[in-house]
UniProtKB/TrEMBL annotation:
<keyword id="KW-1133">Transmembrane helix</keyword>
<keyword id="KW-0813">Transport</keyword>
<dbReference type="InterPro" id="IPR006667">
    <property type="entry name" value="SLC41_membr_dom"/>
</dbReference>
<dbReference type="GO" id="GO:0008324">
    <property type="term" value="F:monoatomic cation transmembrane transporter activity"/>
</dbReference>
<dbReference type="GO" id="GO:0016020">
    <property type="term" value="C:membrane"/>
</dbReference>
<feature type="transmembrane region" description="Helical">
    <location>
        <begin position="71"/>
        <end position="97"/>
    </location>
</feature>
<protein>
    <recommendedName>
        <fullName>SLC41A/MgtE integral membrane domain-containing protein</fullName>
    </recommendedName>
</protein>
<keyword id="KW-0812">Transmembrane</keyword>
<feature type="domain" description="SLC41A/MgtE integral membrane">
    <location>
        <begin position="5"/>
        <end position="128"/>
    </location>
</feature>
<dbReference type="InterPro" id="IPR036739">
    <property type="entry name" value="SLC41_membr_dom_sf"/>
</dbReference>
<keyword id="KW-0460">Magnesium</keyword>
<feature type="transmembrane region" description="Helical">
    <location>
        <begin position="45"/>
        <end position="64"/>
    </location>
</feature>
<dbReference type="Pfam" id="PF01769">
    <property type="entry name" value="MgtE"/>
</dbReference>
<comment type="similarity">
    <text>Belongs to the SLC41A transporter family.</text>
</comment>
<keyword id="KW-0472">Membrane</keyword>
<feature type="transmembrane region" description="Helical">
    <location>
        <begin position="109"/>
        <end position="130"/>
    </location>
</feature>
Length: 136
């Protein structure tokens, strides 16, 4: 299981940072207003679920090929979908919250998103693993 932790954390971090960059840019040029949080989150959720599913399928195949374990493959695949989806939503929400609190979202978002997404990806991965092991 440890082999796939960097894959999940890296993919989640990349997705979250990309979403945050889009939102920070939107805030800076006036494309995104503080009241647009749910519109932005919905858009990023759809992107996250789509990209997460594609990456999840690839991660599942990688786990099946490298580890020859269907349970591990399903765990990694589902974790990838959930991690990327959560990361894109966090990447959309956190810059807007920073802006509302009076912090510069361009400065605060990167380190904050990386930390929160890293923690989230581990919780998601091990949570899914525990649930699947109970049934496996």
């Amino acid at each position: 299981m440890a082999f796939f932790i960097p894959l999940l954390m890296g993919s989640g971090g990349n997705a979250g940072t990309q979403a945050a960059s889009v939102v920070v840019r939107g805030l800076a040029i006036g494309e995104v207003k503080l009241g647009d949080i749910w519109r932005v989150v919905k858009k990023e959720f759809l992107i996250g679920i789509t990209v997460g599913t594609a990456l999840g399928i690839l991660a599942l195949l990688r786990a099946l090929i490298l580890q020859k374990s269907s349970l591990l493959g399903i765990t990694v695949g589902l974790s990838m979908i959930a991690t990327v989806t959560v990361a894109t939503c966090l990447g959309a929400i956190l810059p807007i919250i920073c802006e509302k609190l009076g912090f510069d979202p361009a400065v605060v978002s990167g380190p904050l998103i990386t930390t929160v997404v890293d923690i989230s990806s581990l919780l998601i991965y091990f949570g899914i693993a525990i649930q699947l092991m109970e049934f496996g």
